[in-house]
Amino acid sequence: MPAPVRRVVLGEGADHVARWALLVVLAAAGFWQTWARIAGEVMAGSGSEVVLAAPVGAVLTAVALHLRRRPELPIHDRQSDKIAGTIILAIALMIQWLVLPRYADSYVLLHLDLVAAWLFLLGGSVFFFGTRRTFRYWPSWLLLTVATPGALRLFVFALGGDRWAQVLVMVLVVSVGPLAILGPPALRRLRGAGSANGQRSGGRPLPSLVVSPREAWRSAPLVTVVAVLLALAPLPAGIDERLSPGPDASSGSGQILPPGWQELETIDYPWAERMFGPSATLERQMIRATRVRADWDELLRPRVAAVQTLTVKDPGVLEVFPLEMMFDLSSARVSPPRELPLNRGVTARYRTVIDDENLLTWSVMSFIWTRSGDRIQRVTLITVDNHEFDAEFPPAVPGTRSFSRLLNLLLRGAGAVIDTDPQEKDLDMLTELATDLVEAQWTDE
């Protein structure tokens, strides 16, 4: 290679590295809360390391595409770069500021801030390198678009939900791009038919199709401002803020009933192991009051309630599948959670649910606490508006059935899934039952 050409190529390469370094630094700074949350989720055992497979696979796919680099047409339109880059960065801002708050309860499951991060990288790449060069690596961007955190979580759940399913998904996501790009040429070489293709990338250096250094660095202030706006967007609160200290572990997987209540039956849900890990248990105790009270029922009927106990090893898995994911809420409207202090430092969250399809209205109160330091329990108390003895209670179902509610929230808005004017009929009853239930666990120690 002649000396002038070598200097041009080396200078261009250093400039490209500097552009990518700035873009990576801006992405790290703009989404610093996201990276910190993912690190915390991994430490909490939520399995969030699976979401890191997509960026690793995208980088390896880009490297494979670079190894197969071929001559391209020297076509460039800076005006198109500015339009495309601005639109993509605007979408990233809308996801972070407008869409993410709507899915606060499913934050860990969907991790929409990661989608905004990939869009920020895409828009910044368009500004720094141009549309044509950026979309030359379209398989990498497609992998980031398809392998979203929510899709990867569902894939892991479909394969069994254990650690081996998670490893299998990560290996598939990381390897699918490089194998699809480098696999066919390697097979042709093995057959003796790929020698001609292997010489395409040799010879003279290919013409640069990226924008000039002057144009690229003039875009840096705009991309920096967008990164600052993204960094200012707040993230939903973590589960650690709602985790209360609890009593020692009980001998069974359920709860000790307080005085004035008797157990009717116990229901076990074996599918909890697939969602929350092999050591997880989910049990529902159907209980009935042994005395009647006029403030609970005007006809003096004994009230029936459900006490549902989910026991897991790591608190992070409760963030992946929140309480709403354990019921079929595809046609239901749920009130915003209302926090209520109980006794012993426990704080509960109360909601009402109106299921228009099944004509069922029910109330739910839940709290999360530790048992013996190494087990975490989410205790859920449920009552229904029908006070008859054989009243129907909402069954617990695997979380995949509730994804239609998330789709309704995106397409139809909050009014389709949120009850803005709830009728808190059983608030006093559930508060008293939850308070007595909490006290009964300590009394039995």
Question: Features of this protein?
Answer:
445 residues; alpha+beta; 9-stranded mixed sheet; 16 helices; elongated
Radius of gyration: 27 Å
Helix content: 40-55%
Order of helices and strands: HHHHHHHHHHHHEEHEEHEEEEEHH
Major beta sheet summary: 9 strands, mixed
Average predicted confidence as pLDDT: 85
Strand element count: 9
Shape from CA axes? elongated
First-last Cα distance: 81 Å
Low-confidence stretches: 1-10, 194-203
The helix/strand class is alpha+beta
**Number of helical elements:** 16
Question: What oligomeric state do the depicted chains represent?
Answer: single chain
What percent strand? 15-25%
Task: Describe this protein's structure.
Helix 3 packs antiparallel against helix 8 (138-146), helix 4 runs antiparallel to helix 6 and helix 6 (112-129) packs antiparallel against helix 12 (220-231). The termini are far apart. This protein is elongated. 47% of the residues lie in helices and 15% in strands. Strands 1, 2, 3, 4, 5, 6, 7, 8 and 9 form a 9-stranded mixed sheet that branches. By secondary structure, it is of the alpha+beta class. It has helices spanning 3-30, 32-44, 53-67, 78-102, 107-110, 112-129, 131-134, 138-146, 149-158, 163-190, 213-218, 220-231, 272-276, 316-320, 403-412, 427-443; strands at 243-245, 261-268, 281-289, 304-312, 332-334, 338-341, 347-355, 360-371, 375-384. It has 16 helices and 9 strands.
